[in-house]
Write a structure and sequence with these properties.
about 70 residues, alpha+beta, two-stranded antiparallel sheet, 3 helices
Length: about 70
């Protein structure tokens, strides 16, 4: 008998959820320094990542801020 595997994912679905998520992530020390204490930067990186097919945490780890501009890393 096969058991269904449920994947756990925290992906915001509304703007309010996205803001709460960005706030939580910005408080973490596990994200790059450009995102720590900067929920606006977190939100923009997540959105930019989504537009190119990245999940939220992938975006935060693979989009670097260089001279104030997001760049793929």
């Amino acid at each position: 008998m096969e058991q269904d595997i449920v994947q756990f994912s925290i992906e915001p679905r509304t703007f309010e959820e996205a803001m709460k998520y960005a706030d939580l992530i910005a408080k973490s020390t596990l994200v790059p320094k450009d995102y720590q204490g900067q929920p606006g930067n977190v939100l923009i990186a997540i959105q930019w990542g989504r537009e190119i097919g990245l999940k939220p945490l992938q975006a935060l780890q693979n989009i670097a801020v260089i001279n104030g501009r997001p760049c793929l890393w």
